[in-house]
Write a structure and sequence with these properties.
The protein is of the alpha/beta class and 304 residues long. The protein is built from eleven helices and twelve strands. The protein starts with 7 loop residues before the first helix and ends with a helix.
Length: 304
Amino acid sequence: MGEPAGIGPEVAIAAFRSLDGHVGDRPLRLVGDPDIFRGAGYLSDDNALWPTAERAVHSSAGADPANAGAVIAAIDAAVGAAVAGNAAAIVTAPIHKASLLQAGFAYPGHTEYLAHLTGARRAVMLLAGGGLRVVPLTIHLPLAEVPSRVTKESIVEVAEIVLAALTRDFGIGHPRLAIAGLNPHAGEAGEIGREDLEIVLPAAASLRAKGHAVMGPLPADTMFHAEARARYDAALCMYHDQALIPLKTLAFWDGVNITLGLPIVRTSPDHGTALDIAGQGKADSRSMIAAIRMAAAMADARGA
């Protein structure tokens, strides 16, 4: 369901209708407060609704912290079904992080909460679209905190999760990973910051020593043109915008957010709640449709 006051419920319904309620032989279900889905225009068979006990309040003030319980209940129900084997995958609509945090939600976003719910050691965000796959090493952090979170250990850990997922979930037998430098020009041999020379370079060398096809650190400003993208299957970037700007430039309307490192398949559209256009019939469902199709393909690859 996602944020009730956002476009999540309506793009979920639009995607459901566009796909005629199923992907291949996999039926789709709408999880959350059924009144929210009905209010967003869902009038078909209620068998497709997976209702949660928590109900959302209807407010004209936009995202309301009072809806945190309903939003979280929908996530919990979907994850519980997937963990129990009653769903092959989950596709989450966007949540409004600020209103959840105001209500006392203890996690910065979906990715971290899903890791908590599933007991995953580390969840990793991968964005896919436009022939590009990108992974931000650090996600929802102020930029000033990023350098202290870039460590050799975290780069190696995330890289190995990504490489394993490229094989398991995307069928790439010998995946290739490009690692971006933290600083401009990947640090220019230590002249523009020491992190790339002292942290990123040893991490990449460690991965290569384990037999992985890894390049880096590479200057981020020359990693994303067409010829460069042809040389790797995914790019590991050091921070949120370094990864998401190229992805959203190439695939703004149909990018998909995928969580790696979980025991379940989870995807989501690569856009926010768009509170300003919710309920106006302007929301574009292409990213939600792409997320559903990606989830089904990943579930097929896993045999889920």
